[in-house]
Design goal:
It contains five helices and no strands. It has helices at residues 4-29, 35-58, 60-63, 66-90, 96-108.
Length: 109
């Protein structure tokens, strides 16, 4: 995947913006029920994706591998599913998405 580090950093920036918007929404509504989902979005979506991108930028030989491309897609899907799953779990709407997202997060790590 060409420019893999930039895909990771770009995704990290989008997760950061989503986290900021979600945080502003919670602050404006003064309802912090979904704070765990917000925190996981920021930590895993923003921070981890950024770290992965910086690693692949520092080690371009590894970034050129097929497993690195797979890593990107697994991490992206995990970071989309996991915070949503946590939100569903804390609002008592089911824990399956959180479990699936959690397993995908571990695989991506």
């Amino acid at each position: 995947m060409k420019n893999l580090p930039y895909y990771f950093i770009g995704a990290a920036a989008l997760f950061a913006l989503a986290g900021m918007a979600f945080g502003l929404y919670m602050a404006a509504s003064t309802d912090y029920t979904l704070a765990p989902a917000h925190a996981h979005n920021n930590l895993l979506g923003w921070v981890s994706m950024a770290i992965f991108g910086l690693y692949y930028r520092a080690v371009p030989r590894v970034a050129a591998s097929r497993i690195a491309s797979i890593h990107f897609w697994v991490a992206l899907i995990a970071n989309l599913i996991f915070p949503i799953g946590i939100g569903l779990a804390v609002t008592n709407r089911g824990e399956a998405a959180a479990a699936i997202g959690g397993v995908l997060e571990i695989i991506s790590m």
